[in-house]
Design brief:
Elements lengths: L1 E7 L2 H14 L3 E7 L4 E9 L2 E9 L7 E8 L18 E5 L4 E7 L3 E8 L3 E10 L8 E11 L16 E5 L4 E4 L1
Length: 180
């Protein structure tokens, strides 16, 4: 598994850096661009059997943090919004990034682990990729992540200490869909 780490000066800077890394690592960039509304930059990446959509949401006008929303889906349609891509899993991971920080990216041909470290030892993470098929009808595309956690000497909350719900795409004779 390859490990990359670099500082970022803003979420927009982070999104542009991630786009460059994903392209260099063999992901197809289905869409990368600035859009209107609350989404500052949108990035849709894919590999065979995997489609993921990342969007830089700016909710600061509502008193909320700016974050990257990550979703698993089954394809890409440029006419559709980030939240309504074909076969959207219905699960999203909000990757809080702070004003600036360091990203830690671990990836191989079928999986990505992205950990953001920002402010004072605060972390947010997302995992996505394609799991192996061990038994027919199992395995497939997955998405999971955790809430921001702070490492302190009193609480000892580490990265990956609080997992959000995720989604795994299951394909079998009865149905093919994301399960949450």
């Amino acid at each position: 598994m390859k490990y990359l780490s670099e500082t970022y000066t803003s979420i927009s800077d982070l999104m542009f850096k991630l786009e460059d890394v994903f392209l260099a690592e063999g992901w197809t960039i289905d869409f990368a661009g600035v859009v209107s509304g609350n989404i500052v930059k949108r990035l849709h990446i894919s590999k065979p059997g995997m489609h993921f959509s990342l969007a830089d949401f700016d909710k600061t006008s509502f008193g909320l943090d700016r974050y990257i929303d990550v979703r698993a889906c089954e394809g890409f349609d440029g006419a559709l919004s980030h939240e309504t891509q074909p076969g959207d899993s219905g699960t999203s991971i909000h990757l809080t990034a702070g004003l600036s920080g360091v990203y830690h990216l671990m990836l191989d041909g079928s999986g990505v682990v992205l950990v953001l470290e920002y402010e004072s030892n605060t972390f947010s993470s997302v995992l996505f990729g394609l799991s192996d098929v061990i038994v027919p009808g199992t395995g497939g595309q997955y998405l999971s992540g955790d809430e921001a956690s702070e490492y302190s000497s009193t609480e000892r909350k580490l990265p990956f200490s609080y997992w959000k719900n995720g989604a795994v795409k299951v394909a079998c004779s009865e149905y093919t869909k994301f399960m949450k």
